[in-house]
Amino acid sequence: MELSGQTLGTGTTPWFRRTAATKTFRVPGSWLPWLCFGATLILYLLYLGILPPEPYFGRLRDDALYFSSAKALAQGEGYVIPSLPGRPPQTKYPVLYSWLLSWIWRWYPSFPPNISPAARMTAFFGCWFLAAAFELLRRFRGVGIWPALVLVSLCAFEPHILMLSRALLSDLPFAALALTAALAGDGAMRSRAGPTRAVVAGALAGLSVMMRTVGVAVIAGIVAAALHRRAYRRAALFCLAAAPFFLASLWGSGPSLAPATTGIKHGGPSAFPGWDQTLLYYTSYAKFWRLCVPSWSVFWAMLASNLRSMVAGPALYLLAPTLRPDKSFASAALAGIVSAGAVAGIVRQARSQEWRPIHFIMVFYSAVILIWNYPIFDRFLLPFVPVFYMGLWVEGKHLVQLALTSRSARRPIGERVLGGVMLTGLAALAGVGLWNYRYGFRSQMPGFAKQLALMAGEKAQVYRWVRWNTDPSAIFIAYQDAGLYLYTGRTAVSPICFSTEYVYTGEKSVLERDLAHITDAATALNARYWLVSEDDFQLEIEDAQPVIKERVARLMSAMPEVYHSAGGKVRLYDISPLMRRAPLRSAQMK
Questions:
Q1: What pTM value is reported for the model?
Q2: Where are the domains of the chain?
Q3: Environment class of residue 44 by beta-carbon count within 10 Å: exposed (0-12), middle (13-18) or buried (19+)?
């Protein structure tokens, strides 16, 4: 097949021509980038095909919570947390993603085989995200369609995006909706645009809020773009279209339940503060935030830490894992320089053309996540990875042009030396980025998947024993509690959801305070079993994990072990002795 630069004809002219003499097809040049983009999507899906989703399931915990609530929706039980004793309403996550997953349960009700079709739904949103990114980037002046294709191809195989493409999480679906809403809003928020476009943009932005609460930044950003362009009527239509979806996102997300309203009877809200804290984590971001940020000093520490993480954020998609901004000052400084280059390129491009909704969305989105007390910026910044790459492309071109100009023989020797240093530095950064892209996290993913598969196999042994040998009404303590529920049908809860205050302040007393109440959930719920796995508490900060595991091991040393996996990595304990001490402790606390 011969690809030529023919352009797409009009009227009845076919989109390709076949020449009888050469027996070749001539494909118009305007279609060639889209054909290449289609090939990129195919390769992206093929790559995902070699990453089985089952070993990853439950590792990040939120995926199992989403999937268990989806199961409840599919079975007509309402939007609840069925894995939690008392089955409280699911007030933490907007309903849209769980509702989409509920259709997987309706069509494929067998668990765990239905994890695969659920992961394919995430892959569909990944393709949607890449298509929206391609359309967004090719519209930027100074980028062009071929560089846009290269940048989107880099996004497709970026390790963070690949990992989340196999997870049952709302990150990629939200990113797809956010970018699509930004695109629709760009065309709709103009005084000459038709009203239908504003309504469509409003619906898309509203759906992003129903996917994730931070979608309010999408609505705010598009409205700000409309006001900047003086498209007031279109802004009003947009808001009217987004309002029903915004209100629907509030369904079921009212004030968090007090512990006494979950159907669990215990000594009152103050008797087991560890359980109260854990329940807030499951049911209310707002109340858990207030518990974790109890003073202005903690707030400022959180703000400073989040700001450092945000500054280093864009560089994570280029320099990690070779350079870890949290490990040394030099790494943090280099990450800051790279991120500054990305932002400078974004600003440079916007000033050369116009400020678009995506720019305003980034501002509002950044304001929200700066005060969000979960420092997972590699996931938070995911929707803007294509824009970061675009910024680095634009600024890189600008710096190369400056360096080449300074290397002219007519320039002073100092400028020529500076230009050579600049070119060397840019080449070094590009080399590190390419090395990371080829040999970094992505090369580690197959081995990591094998490790997860081995651990999942050992957990499956224990889950099988639990299904056949325990009372269906027994309550379990397990770090991956929703996963245990899905595999066994037994209700479960995490030992304790640690306050993020320790993450930001490093105060050992905060960690010790939480550890002192690590049995509160078990005693409040009269739990019977405690499941301990080697990969427990993996989402806590690194220096806290050994301390937490040591405390749990000390507790379990006094409890009878009832079962363990063949490799001994997963163990189940009968915590009845702990429960017998609970009434005395409750009386003392009163």
A1: 0.85
A2: 2-30, 37-249, 293-439, 444-589
A3: buried
